[in-house]
Design a protein that fits this description.
The complex is a heterodimer of chains A (89) and B (369).
Chain A lengths: L1 H21 L21 H15 L16 H12 L3
Helix pairs in contact in A: 1-2, 1-3
Chain B lengths: L6 H9 L6 H11 L5 H10 L3 H11 L7 H34 L5 E3 L1 H9 L10 E4 L5 H10 L3 E6 L4 E4 L2 H10 L6 E4 L7 E7 L7 H12 L7 H16 L2 H5 L6 H14 L2 H13 L3 H15 L2 H10 L5 H4 E2 L8 E2 L4 H5 L13 H6 L4
Parallel strand pairs in B: 2-6
Antiparallel strand pairs in B: 1-2, 3-4, 3-5, 5-6, 7-8
Helix pairs in contact in B: 1-2, 1-3, 4-5, 10-12, 10-13, 10-14, 13-15, 14-15
Classes of the chains: A mainly alpha (89), B alpha+beta (369).
Chain lengths: 89, 369
């Protein structure tokens, strides 16, 4: 249950970042929303800006092996990754 | 095609090797007896990063050659400067390697960093712009700490201020997503032969860290100073194929040159036995790198026609000729077809005319300058 709460919090924070960085209305976004194809359609530059915003928000740097498209596919997957990094896994 | 080359091109191709048969030496001697356009030859040799090698071979096999003293001097100084520069570069690299090893990080040199001391052995015959290594993804943070403590930063050299400017995080991320390397580690040098040291670290092949981890684990486990020959060979082929078929490499004019093929040819005929070849094929198949071997061996046979290359090509047993006709697989949504032949591209000043639209990576990267 604790994990879900934290995941939800991360999801909310990700939505705030998306809104702040790209002026996207985030009311209808769900955990399953895709970040690029078939979802928000963020381009590669926007993905990089979002990555940096996440790093600044949580105070870590993604490892090079984490910077793959699959890890940024949806809010769900990305939230899980952030949770894992914060938990030091 | 190869049969239509002019004398300067034939000479360059022939001199683009370190190991000669008797017939090849005779052919070289015959060729230099012709009237040659030395300025054309030197221009091409520079483009193919083999002015030193050309000079070394002419001195060794055709010492009586008649050549204008200015041309002689330029090549001689280039050879001597290359030698001093490379000695300094590799001495410095060994310090980094030792410092990494003390922290439990094993880095293994690829390309020139290995080939110069272990294959060519004469530090003047081959230029190096930087030294490349393989590193396990899990070791990257410690590697960064070690290099930072030695004064290296991930950045770019600014020729106007003569400083290394740290890379912005956005560009570093883009680099990680697009290439298999860390952003280059640089440091200003005190040597008159080197403005700045530049060390590159590769941690993945085709965006997968597993093959590099596999290669390094194997070498560490066996206590090897260098990579296993089969692994080293696959990396050379991977690197050659990636640059030969990348739109970004074409625009930066680093797609194909003779020295890259020469390196692989010399390594193959001097360091690899048939068992190594089979191991390399198995490793490439395990990590879906067969295209790299296919492409490399196909053109090595066209250029040098060595028996071991032909044998290995047969053993690889592939018939995917499509990859020879295409480029830009990783740059565009769809691969593009070459309009020029391999031989025309090999001897062109550059192949930028092949690129009709700019890859996203190029247009994006300039946003962070």
């Amino acid at each position: 249950m604790e994990t879900n709460i934290n995941k939800n919090k991360i999801f909310q924070e990700l939505k705030n970042m998306v809104h702040k960085e790209f002026q996207i209305v985030t009311d209808d976004l769900e955990l399953s929303t895709q970040l690029f194809d078939g979802g928000l359609y963020l381009d590669s530059i926007q993905m990089i800006e979002l990555t940096v915003a996440i790093e600044n928000c949580y105070g870590f740097e993604f490892g090079v092996d984490m910077l793959i498209e699959d890890n940024f596919r949806s809010f769900d997957i990305l939230s899980d990754l952030i949770l894992k990094i914060l938990a030091g896994i | 095609m190869k049969d239509n080359l002019n004398n300067e091109q034939k000479l360059l191709l022939l001199a683009g090797r370190y190991t000669f048969s008797e017939n090849e030496v005779n052919e070289l001697r015959e060729l230099v007896n012709n009237e040659l356009d030395w300025s054309l030859l030197y221009g091409m040799a520079i483009r193919h990063k083999m002015l030193s090698l050309l000079w070394y071979n002419l001195n060794k096999y055709c010492p009586k050659i008649r050549i204008n003293s200015q041309y002689r001097q330029v090549a001689n100084f280039h050879y001597m400067g290359t030698k001093l520069r490379n000695e300094e570069y590799l001495k410095n690299y060994n310090k980094i390697r030792m410092a990494c090893k003390e922290r439990g990080v094993y880095i293994y040199p690829t390309k020139g960093g290995y080939l110069l001391p272990e294959l060519y052995k004469d530090f003047g015959v081959r230029t190096i712009n930087d030294v490349d290594s393989l590193v396990r993804a899990q070791d990257i943070q410690i590697l960064r700490n070690v290099l930072n403590s030695l004064g290296y930063i991930e950045g770019e050299y600014d020729r106007t201020t003569k400083e290394i400017k740290p890379v912005v995080r956005q560009k570093q991320i883009m680099w990680a997503q697009k290439s298999s390397n860390l952003f280059p580690f640089q440091k200003i040098s005190n040597s008159p032969y080197i403005e700045h040291f530049d060390y590159d670290f590769c941690y993945s092949f085709n965006r997968s860290t597993a093959p590099v981890t596999d290669i390094i684990n194997r070498s560490v486990k066996e206590g090897l100073k260098y990579l296993k020959h089969s692994d080293f060979f696959v990396h050379l082929c991977y690197h050659l194929f990636r640059e030969a078929s990348s739109a970004v490499a074409i625009l930066y004019q680093v797609d194909i040159n003779i020295i890259k093929f020469c390196d692989i040819r010399e390594f193959l005929i001097n360091k690899m036995n048939k068992n190594d070849c089979l191991e390399a094929i198995n490793f490439a198949k395990k990590y879906e790198l067969e295209n790299s071997l296919y492409y490399t061996l196909h053109y090595l046979i066209e250029m040098y026609n060595d028996e071991i290359a032909k044998w290995m090509f047969e053993e690889l047993n592939m018939s995917n000729t499509e990859i020879l006709k295409q480029y830009g697989n990783t740059d565009f949504m769809e691969p593009r077809e070459w309009s020029k032949s391999f031989w025309v591209r090999l001897f062109a000043n550059n192949n930028k005319d092949e690129i009709k639209d700019i890859p996203n990576f190029i247009s994006n990267v300039y946003k962070y300058y």
